Amino acid sequence: MALRLCQNLRHPLVPPLKFSMKATRTSKLCVQNCMLDPKESRKLVLEVKEKLQKEFHSLPVGNNGRDDEDMILWFLKDRKFSVEDAVAKLTKAIKWRQEFKVSELSEESVTNVAQTGKAYVHDFLDVNDRPVLIVEASKHFPAMQDPAEDEKLCVFMIEKALHKLPTGKEDILGIFDLRGFGTDNADLKFLTFMFDVFYYYYPKRLGQVLFVEAPFVFKPIWQLARPLLKSYASLVRFCSVETVRKEYFTERTVPASFRG
To answer: In 3-state terms, what secondary structure has residue 152?
Structure first.
């Protein structure tokens, strides 16, 4: 589940990127920075809800549906409490969930691709109490694996990670283990899909992304990918295994693949 350089890609390769082991300075994607008085926000939630009912009555209801007030509030916060913008983004997200059949995804439905071990949700939270989604890029072979199955696994893992969110927490940590990464693992199309999913359908749910031990061959791929990731590019930090161990986990909670 890493990155595929599409053969039709016409972007010229740019000079190699110098990776910094220091954290990228980012703006924290926390909706708590954009809050209204509870009464005002409640009023806007009901306004969006009514608008969706009138203009998009065919959309499903229930959890993650057009009448899901928690979801409505989340998208309102993401759109800085603009009713029109929230309705537009929510409509797109709900339609996507319906077309992608997100509610039908399960452990059984992604068993075959999950068995590759290319992606999983870690059993423990990080030191910031965030669920952790780990991708082992060296186990992703786009030329030999079904991209549709990879996309299903991606969305299922995102859903699984979000279900582990503790009360009061809002985002997850993504870790790309790039040890052993080679050109056969490159999949720019998939990387773009994943970040688009976060941007359009799970806004502000991705707190940070770690690219661990990125090899030289990854540099031109990152140069191509970076402008396609929109604001999420600022969430990326290139770091070492040691940094992952010391800064993001305790000795008890560090993933087995990152232990010394």
So the answer is: helix
